[in-house]
Amino acid sequence: xxxxxxxxxxxxxxxxxxxxxxxxxxxxxxxxxxxxxxxxxxxxxxxxxxxxxxxxxxxxxxxxxxxxxxxxxxxxxxxxxxxxxxxxxxxxxxxxxxxxxxxxxxxxxxxxxxxxxxxxxxxxxxxxxxxxxxxxxxxxxxxxxxxxxxxxxxxxxxxxxxxxxxxxxxxxxxxxxxxxxxxxxxxxxxxxxxxxxxxxxxxxxxxxxxxxxxxxxxxxxxxxxxxxxxxxxxxxxxxxxxxxxxxxxxxxxxxxxxxxxxxxxxxxxxxxxxxxxxxxxx
Length: 282
What we know:
- The chain is α/β, with parallel strands linked by helices.
- The chain has two domains: 2-173, HUPs (Rossmann fold, 3-Layer(aba) Sandwich); 186-281, Pantoate-beta-alanine ligase, C-terminal domain (Pantoate--beta-alanine Ligase, Chain: A,domain 2, 2-Layer Sandwich), CATH 3.30.1300.
- The chain has helices at residues 7-19, 35-47, 75-84, 95-98, 110-113, 117-120, 124-139, 151-163, 193-199, 201-214, 220-234, and strands at residues 2-4, 24-29, 50-55, 89-91, 143-147, 169-173, 238-246, 260-269, 272-281.
- The strands form two sheets. A six-stranded parallel beta sheet has the order 1-4-3-2-5-6, sandwiched between helices. A three-stranded antiparallel beta sheet has the order 7-8-9, with helices on one face.
- Helix 7 crosses helix 8 and helix 10 packs antiparallel against helix 11.
- The longest helix is centred in the middle third of the chain and has 16 residues, at 124-139.
- The termini are far apart.
């Protein structure tokens, strides 16, 4: 496995791979790998000839008071895991190489970014879109792979790629969960044992909501009120950031479920802000 730190070197490598007609799969990450990251790498490894993974904790997607400085990092462990998954290139740039001192160009998809995570993190998706676009321009992949836990992010990246005519397929892969249902996240490390025992109830509540939906509940307010009560009883230390039913592609609020709908949740438990979602088919 090659470790590349220079953006121009990565771009040259990937240009050569394209010229050799080798299909490039790309997995952008912020590191501290767990099984969900590895599942994305495995899918790309199986479906592409060249696997490029980036490891970059992107400062522009963190807001004031968020956990940029304390975000978990373990480069040696991540390197070993990347090798074990057959990664061809691990791209590990310095911040100064990704953002010039007078960097002044930003990319955003406002229509899809204002709700859900965008309400409490107003500049988050601008940072995500900008760094993802920069990484796609460097890795030049045929396919870029993202997890569906960050569904809003996935929808925004897909829209950005479509609107900017980026020559890349954006592939969304299923959420990977712990045995008790908690969606895997690098931030799960922030949870104490007590908080961890409550956190698994996030997915349990989503499954209950699916049951209510399958029993005929179509009014979003009723569904969300029931789910809010479930979380109040089962996650007493949690603070709900949002509970919403939205269109899975447009991200706009749905007051009644007549077609496909995404039930999305963000809950703060201790120092961790945890997101999850489930797709409901009307």
